[in-house]
Design goal:
The complex is a heterodimer of chains A (101) and B (145).
Chain A: E1 2-3, E2 19-25, E3 28-30, E4 35-39, H1 45-55, E5 64-68, E6 71-73, E7 87-94
Parallel strand pairs in A: 1-4, 2-7
Antiparallel strand pairs in A: 2-3, 2-4, 5-6, 5-7
Chain B: H1 3-14, H2 19-25, E1 27-31, E2 36-41, E3 47-52, E4 62-66, E5 82-83, E6 96-97, H3 103-106, H4 116-119, H5 127-140
Antiparallel strand pairs in B: 1-2, 2-3, 3-4, 5-6
Classes of the chains: A mainly beta (101), B alpha+beta (145).
Chain lengths: 101, 145
């Protein structure tokens, strides 16, 4: 994957730098297979997930969960609040179905 | 269902198992020739799932749980959706996945009133989405990572 936008600011701390974000779902990858989308620390994860939902033509993701390195994420939080920096690949998929014995 | 339609749908979905996706999940594909989808999900412990996807998606996939080397997985007890088996109706020995979206669930005596038809077109209930759900269940078993 490569960044689809150049530039990371000049001299800001890591927390202030833009992030490179991809959302990897079983139905495809946002923004695409070969690039990341620029995002900012104050953006909510839900905003990026909504863009992914639209791009991937998903219709109902109410019961989908997001993870980063197997850590659950709260879409209502910002990237900064979620302690996400740099290159971020979000795993996003439907919550595991019910069942059991 | 016409096999050609099932195969076309299968191949369209399996095409999403890209290198980027597989790396993100820590999976390796062992076989993706219709009607078999065989994936190893690396973890502690590693789980391998072999799906038989005949009549996809009129029928949900039938899953066989395997060890990393391909031997049948043995469970000493039921944990979460991983039933120690045997199944009450299909006669197969060994553990099975008792979770919505899998043939062994919808044909199990306890769930005959839960029809696959209700779930099959929901976002995230494609073949890869179902594997994602199994992977998450597996990681949530106490002691697993």
């Amino acid at each position: 994957m490569q960044h689809n936008e150049d530039g990371y600011g000049d001299g800001h701390e890591e927390e202030d730098k833009p992030l490179a974000v991809a959302v990897i779902t079983p139905d495809g990858i946002y923004p695409d297979e070969n690039s990341y989308r620029r995002a900012y620390g104050e953006e909510k994860l839900a905003e990026i997930l909504e863009l992914a939902k639209t791009k991937l033509k998903l219709t109902n993701t109410d019961d989908w969960d997001a993870y980063h390195n197997n850590r659950p994420l709260d879409p209502k939080h910002t990237f900064t609040e979620s302690h996400l920096h740099g290159i971020v690949e979000i795993q996003w998929h439907k919550r595991e179905g019910g069942g059991g014995a | 269902m016409l096999e050609v339609l099932a195969k076309a749908k299968f191949e369209k979905e399996v095409a999403n198992l890209s290198d980027v996706f597989l790396k993100s999940r820590g999976w390796v594909v062992n076989n993706k020739v219709f009607p078999i989808l065989d994936v190893t999900m690396f973890g502690k412990p590693t789980l391998r799932v072999r799906l038989e996807c005949d009549e996809w998606n009129e029928l949900p996939p039938s899953a066989t749980l395997l060890c990393e080397n391909g031997d049948p997985l043995q469970l000493t007890r039921t944990v979460g959706c991983f039933h120690e088996g045997p199944h009450d109706r299909n006669g197969k020995p060994g553990p099975f996945i008792c979770m919505r979206g899998f043939r062994e669930y919808h044909t199990h005596g306890s769930h005959l009133n839960e029809h696959w038809e209700t779930y099959k077109n929901q976002d995230g209930n494609g073949l890869i989405g179902l594997l994602d759900q199994v992977n998450r269940h597996w990681k949530k078993v106490p002691g697993h990572e």
